[in-house]
Amino acid sequence: MKSMKLTATALALLLLVLDHAMAQGGLKKNLATTKPAKPAQCCDEVRSLKVQVANLSSMLEEMNKKQESDLMKVVRQMMELEKHNQQHEARVTEAESKYSEIYNQLEIMQLQAAQSAPQQSTSDAIYDCASLYSRSYKISGEYKLPKDDFLGTPELNVYCDMENNGGGWTVIQRRKIGLTSFDRDWKQYKNGFGTIRGDFWLGNEHIFRLTRQPTVLRIELEDWEGKTRYAEYGFFTVSNEMNSYKLFIANYSGNAGDSLRYHNNTNFSTNNKDNDKCVDNCAQLRHGGYWYNCCTDSNLNGVFYRYGSHTKNPDGISWYGWHGQHYSLKRVEMKIRPQSFVP
Ligand SMILES: *[C@@H]1O[C@H](CO)[C@@H](O)[C@H](O)[C@H]1NC(C)=O
Ligand SMILES: *[C@@H]1O[C@H](CO)[C@@H](O)[C@H](O)[C@H]1NC(C)=O
Ligand SMILES: *[C@@H]1O[C@H](CO)[C@@H](O)[C@H](O)[C@H]1NC(C)=O
Ligand SMILES: *[C@@H]1O[C@H](CO)[C@@H](O)[C@H](O)[C@H]1NC(C)=O
Ligand SMILES: [Ca+2]
């Protein structure tokens, strides 16, 4: 664009010079009436300038054509990329549904076993994956926790990790597919959303109930290079809704950094409920629901950015203690287990 403008200016200048030369030619002509001279010289100059103008005009035209074709090339490349992206998403969705099918059969068997098991006393109650584990359900997958009148808990579908780090883990959050939006309101964060084998938030109300007994939180992270890190908190609980699901954590260990500490003792915020400690609206800025302070040292419910765009935004799925604020992770899992659990 710039070079085109320059050329246009040059062309204008040249035309000015041409004008000037013509004027001078005219003057010379006037003089010629009194004093005979060589009119051929002036006309040669004008002719050569005219040729140069024609030359410049054609160069300008050529440049315009080239720029147009460059632009078309970029547009075509962008369309190609977009198509590629869509194909990728379709493959991910397809893979997810295949995965679900495979596990469906196994899951039904697990559910039947869990539900036909007799419940004698409260200590035998199935209220999380740890209690299923101690009843010898040691295969990871989706389970249905029965309604418990004594504990006042409703029926709940959960994903149990029965294999990693001793098993008995109830998964409360997962990010791995990236098609489910986590920019949701208070009510959705309260009751939970997403698919239990894919990306989901279990729900603040359920997390509150599950963490009434002393609970351990384990956070597993994976980056786009396939490396993994973890952060574990020996103590984790959230308050009830009246107290805005306020977060308490303690006793960090791990290799990812203590990036939830900054969020300790803060209320939960969503895009329609600003409970953060900031003049800004952190949930709206970071596009998620979380225990926002002012605003983040981690943003595990942020926006899922795919490889290529994962380092460009401040509202991604970040854990500052590992990759800083501008790196959106590829995979996250948050899971809980009673402190008293013995593998
Ligand atoms: C314009 O002039 C340059 C050099 O003076 C020459 O190489 C080129 O071929 C000319 N272009 C046209 C279209 O006449
Ligand atoms: C943290 O760990 C210490 C040492 O194991 C323990 O005494 C303390 O009770 C733990 N804190 C919480 C809040 O669980
Ligand atoms: C958290 O929420 C409670 C009520 O839900 C409120 O009393 C308290 O001041 C809030 N704390 C902060 C730090 O905003
Ligand atoms: C969180 O705050 C509590 C006090 O409310 C404190 O005991 C605990 O150590 C803090 N946790 C971390 C990880 O700093
Ligand atoms: Ca605010």
Automatic annotation (TrEMBL):
SUPFAM superfamilies per record: Fibrinogen C-terminal domain-like
Organism: Phoxinus phoxinus
SMART domains reported in the protein's UniProt record: FBG (SM00186)
Annotated localization: Secreted
GO biological process: blood coagulation
Stretches of the chain forming a coiled coil according to its record: 46-105
Keywords tagged on the record: Coiled coil, Disulfide bond, Glycoprotein, Secreted, Signal
Name of the protein this chain belongs to: Fibrinogen C-terminal domain-containing protein
Source taxonomy: Eukaryota, Metazoa, Chordata, Craniata, Vertebrata
Signal sequence range: 1-23
Residues in Fibrinogen C-terminal domain copies: 120-340
GO-annotated cellular components: extracellular region
One protein family per Pfam: Fibrinogen_C
